[in-house]
Amino acid sequence: MVELVPSILSADFSKLALEVEAAERGGGSVIHIDIMDGHFVPNLTMGPPVVKSLRKVTSLPLDCHLMIENPDDFIAEFADAGANWISVHYEACRHLHRTLELISQHGMEPAVVINPATLAGLLVDILPMVHHVLVMSVNPGFGGQKFIGFSLDKIRRLAELRAELDLNFRIEVDGGVAHDTIASVVEAGADLLVAGSAVFASGHPEKEARVLLSLAREAERRRPGQKLHSARAAAI
Fold it and tell me: Is 79 helix (H, G, I), strand (E, B) or coil?
């Protein structure tokens, strides 16, 4: 079943606990936390102290997306802070297999992220290791960007690989997921839908989360069984 994953990057930090609680009431079932270092991406955000604070106010899984260089140096800190899922960028990890093992060793679910220009097929060897694959449907670093259309082909390709390899990793999508894009993302095969501005920007996160989840569930009912798609998708 598809899940809505509210991203606190777009929340009002003066009342973060209330924002998270409202998004949860609206149907959000995982909380997405974007960690940026100002080096791997051109922005600087939060770190383990925010994760630790959120752990006190919600029992939902905390999905920490590390957009940072040298992620191995921070895995233990995020584990201690209460993170449940850790996703690292293919593009940032010199030894990706080792990094994913390190996440697992610290009791968290490991995941890998790919930027818009990275081919999904590059992940084949590590797919058995991951809880989910996060497809960036914008260039990472800032919220509120426009959805990149060819990301749908990456989602389809990952769904194909999951079926072909008889695996059960989940497919997460982050970037531009909103009222006008969420249905196509779900129909392409995504399971975890990260939404930031679409949930929080209006100031009514409970209402917006409920609407987005309803649209996603409606699209899920229309989703056909996974099958081989176009030759173009297979090449991505």
Answer: helix
Q: What is the reported pLDDT for 236? A: 54
Residues with catalytic roles = 34, 174
pLDDT (0 to 100) of residue 230 = 40
Give the start-to-end residue ranges of the domains of the chain.
3-234
Nearest to 133, CA basis, from 174, 92, 83, 77: 174
Give 63's contacts (C-beta < 8 A, 6+ positions apart): 5, 30, 31, 32, 33, 84, 85, 87, 172, 192, 194
- Using DSSP's 3-state secondary structure scheme, residue 195 falls into strand
CB 37 within 8 A of CB 204: no
Q: Considering the entire predicted model, what is its pTM?
A: 0.93
173 has pLDDT over 80: yes
Question: 3-class secondary structure for 39-52?
Answer: CCCCCECCCHHHHH
Distance between CA 124 and CA 5 in Å, rounded?
A: 25
**3-234: which CATH topology?**
TIM Barrel (3.20.20)
